[in-house]
């Protein structure tokens, strides 16, 4: 099992805390601080235990070079104003970092500049990991959303550090996913949505070995419907994945796993056009499916309410348009009233849960979209394995 931050001796020691402060910033202002708030429990614990806390994160994709647009300075300013004062260092390795760390007292917290300003971070270059190790006595990872990436701050650095463990956020994620993968209460229903079959195919294949039923909505459903010989009109489709859908359907039949697909649709002739209801599984040639219809909502809700464990990742329609968000909200509300163990991951599903005002009724909201899918697909993640 992964060691927890609580089992580490941190007093007076330099703790490299990998956080996920990849937050939306507009005109230098933090727009959503969810990820910052989620890291506070670990940050405060380390402070109280007298650690010298060195926080490090990425922000956006600066492609290995300094770019002011991706600086973490606004995050440090926001943090200092809202929570408690922290010092910002405008580099993440080298002399500036060393002199700041040398001046730290027990319980001090600093934030380093964006790790991705160096190519060594994403390429996991040994010399970059070694440069981070120079000011690290203890390593703690609390950035679940990056645990699927073999980057220096997630994989290379902890490889070099003996005392290492998971922060509270990562620990909670691991506990939920381990239970989900090893001892879920049955019936176990997975709900998958979003645009592309290609993004989820590995997950679907893994889930077939775990679940009793898979519900598929969103644009990825049209590739499945096309494979089954249904008319999908102008709906989005991945023709190159029809063969993979064939394999998936055969596998699910072998394992006795039911795959549920939409039976009616909310459509339009253009992506943001006026909604037209199509009361059948077939979509006319001049229309595209943009949300699941009321009969599908009823069908999906019925299955959700029978489940004891539910995993949801991906919206049921073009969720950002009010004309096509009813399916997604219906799923959010069904999960909230199901009484099952519910695990939600992926940006759109999480924001639907928040917008529906039912966050407190969900057992676990995962902070990692890609990471949560890969955890299910592979049974673990590089950033988790390296902490064991």
UniProtKB/TrEMBL annotation:
PROSITE patterns: PGLYCERATE_KINASE. This is Phosphoglycerate kinase. It catalyses: (2R)-3-phosphoglycerate + ATP = (2R)-3-phospho-glyceroyl phosphate + ADP. The gene is pgk. Keywords: ATP-binding, Cytoplasm, Glycolysis, Kinase, Nucleotide-binding, Transferase. Pfam families: PGK (PF00162). InterPro entries: Phosphoglycerate_kinase, Phosphoglycerate_kinase_CS, Phosphoglycerate_kinase_N, Phosphoglycerate_kinase_sf. GO terms for cellular component: cytosol. HAMAP family: Phosphoglyc_kinase (MF_00145). GO terms for molecular function: ADP binding; ATP binding; phosphoglycerate kinase activity. SUPFAM superfamilies: Phosphoglycerate kinase (SSF53748). Belongs to the phosphoglycerate kinase family. (2R)-3-phosphoglycerate binds at residues 35, 116, 149. It is found in: Cytoplasm. Monomer. Substrate binds at residues 20-22, 35, 58-61, 116, 149. ATP binds at residues 200, 289, 320, 346-349.
């Amino acid at each position: 099992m992964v060691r927890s931050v609580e089992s580490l001796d941190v007093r007076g020691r330099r703790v490299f805390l990998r956080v996920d402060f990849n937050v939306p910033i507009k005109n230098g202002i933090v727009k959503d601080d969810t990820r910052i708030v989620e890291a506070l429990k670990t940050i405060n614990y380390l402070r109280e235990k007298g650690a010298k806390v060195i926080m490090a994160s990425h922000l956006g994709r600066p492609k290995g070079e300094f770019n002011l647009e991706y600086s973490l300075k606004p995050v440090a300013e926001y943090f200092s104003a809202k929570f408690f004062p922290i010092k910002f260092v405008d580099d993440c390795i080298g002399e500036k970092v060393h002199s700041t760390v040398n001046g730290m007292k027990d319980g001090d917290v600093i934030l380093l500049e964006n790790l991705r300003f160096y190519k060594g971070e994403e390429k996991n270059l040994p010399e970059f990991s070694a440069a981070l190790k120079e000011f690290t006595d203890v390593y703690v990872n609390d950035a679940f959303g990056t645990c699927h990436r073999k980057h220096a701050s997630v994989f290379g650095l902890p490889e070099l550090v003996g005392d290492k463990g998971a922060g509270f956020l990562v620990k909670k994620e691991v506990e939920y996913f381990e239970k989900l993968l090893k001892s879920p209460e049955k019936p176990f229903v997975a709900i998958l949505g979003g645009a592309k079959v290609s993004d989820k195919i590995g997950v679907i294949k893994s889930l077939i070995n775990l679940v009793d039923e898979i519900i598929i909505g969103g644009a990825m459903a049209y590739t499945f419907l096309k494979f089954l010989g249904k008319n999908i009109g102008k709906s989005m489709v991945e023709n190159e994945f029809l063969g993979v859908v064939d394999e998936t359907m055969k596998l699910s039949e072998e394992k006795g796993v039911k795959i549920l697909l939409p039976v009616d649709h909310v459509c339009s002739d253009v992506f943001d056009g006026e909604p037209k209801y199509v009361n059948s599984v077939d979509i006319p040639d001049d229309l595209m499916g943009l949300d699941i219809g009321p009969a599908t909502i009823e069908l999906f809700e019925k299955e959700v309410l029978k489940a004891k464990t539910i995993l949801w990742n991906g919206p049921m329609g073009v969720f950002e348009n009010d004309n096509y968000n009813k399916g997604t909200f219906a799923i959010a509300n069904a999960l909230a009233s199901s009484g099952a163990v519910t695990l939600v991951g992926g940006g759109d599903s999480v924001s639907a849960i928040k917008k529906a005002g039912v966050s407190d009724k969900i057992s676990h909201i995962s902070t990692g979209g890609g990471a949560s899918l890969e955890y299910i697909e592979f049974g673990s993640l590089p950033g988790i394995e390296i902490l064991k």
